[in-house]
Amino acid sequence: MGVTSRLADFVATTRYEDIPDDVIAVTKRLVLDTIGNLAGGHMATSAKLAVKTALQLGGVPESTVLLTGVKTSAPLATFANISLASALESDDSILNVGHIAHCAFFPALALAERDNRSGRDLLAATALAYEFGARIARAGRSMVRKPDGKLFFGNTGVGSHWANLPVAASAARMLRLDGQQTASTFGIAGYTSNIPTGRRWNRPNLSHQKYQDYALAAQSAVIGALLSANGYRGDGQIFDGEARDTMANWWIMAGWPASDPGRAIDGLGDEWVIRKAGFKPYPSCRFTHGSLDRFGMLLSDHDIHADEIEKIDIYAPRTVSTFRLHLANVESEGDAEFSMPHVMAMTALGVPAGPQWVAPRYWHDPAVVRLRSRVECHVWEEANASIIEQILAGDFVNFPTRVVVHARGSSFEAEGLFAMGDHDLPETRYGDEEVVAKFRSYTDQALASVNVERCIETVMTLDKVRHVAELVGFIY
Prior knowledge:
alpha+beta, 2-methylcitrate dehydratase PrpD, CATH 3.30.1330.120, two-stranded antiparallel ribbon, 19 helices
């Protein structure tokens, strides 16, 4: 069997009972976190425009656009719900993979509601799609070292244009497609993946589009699964082939400098990559989080107040400047999510982490602007070398940062490798308690308090829910 067939059979034939208990537990946390991110993102302009557009298009009333109570077609509901859940940049993260949970969960939810599926069906589809997506992402090589020693990142960078693939897996599983039909769905999704957009980071200001249109890609992949269910045949060997062949695999066609397809199936069914899923307490790019943790600790340990801060120096890998995180100008929610100076200012001013961090009232607030002007980001070459070696080894697990706060005529310094929510250390790993606390803080402006608690209880006992409409009914 080829790589595509192995992956398709894994998604199609793995029973709920075959999935380890701890993987189900992680999946429940991811589901709750993703719903919380959706509720938190409801005021973002990009999310509002996406929901407005989806509802204007109508569609067969079969799947709910969450928070609105309005039903539309499953592809459009998936589009709208992923738009909401990805708006805040507070979604799950694995450093060498990216954001997967919304792409694994919302297609399954839309089709589960349509087809009267159970909570177990929903959990299995989400877990399997997440696992599949993580394996596809980690099998691509975003950077290689050439024989002359120079690093090559690809002509366009990579981006997250693989994100429609876990959507395809999620939809195929919920439609109960067999292995051949699931492979076909992968082929359709692979042919309609977005172009790689990794080299568009340093445009002047972020538009409503960020680094990847997850929602548009997701809508297309759900349609691909529906096509396969009706007998349409896609390329059932999309992940097989060599670069030198005329049948190059998906990674090579998608612009990755290199690929290791075997890594997508190594330990399949035994080693679960989803166990490494990390959670983001802050609504900002994951590469800001280590610095935010260090900064918050220094403020607390030394009782430093915002008006005492003279300067903040951030030392981090070159990724901070590559991803435009060093810029202080904020004119949109996206700018706020990808500005190290802005999120430092939010922390210094004691604004609780959540939707309010990107609120327009803070974009030009004099106190915020003043603090942003005192943040300077520096490339920490030692840390950058560590990142490069991790990526080349295919095991990007930590992001070194150092923060120096100058206040009251003194300097206070902290450094570290990990951020809160990272899986790799017991002291940073999020369990049920931490995910529930974040959920409550991100939903308090969008959901009725009684629904917040009902939603938590339902997700944590989702394996006992007979029909997912019970969960959908609490998300408004």
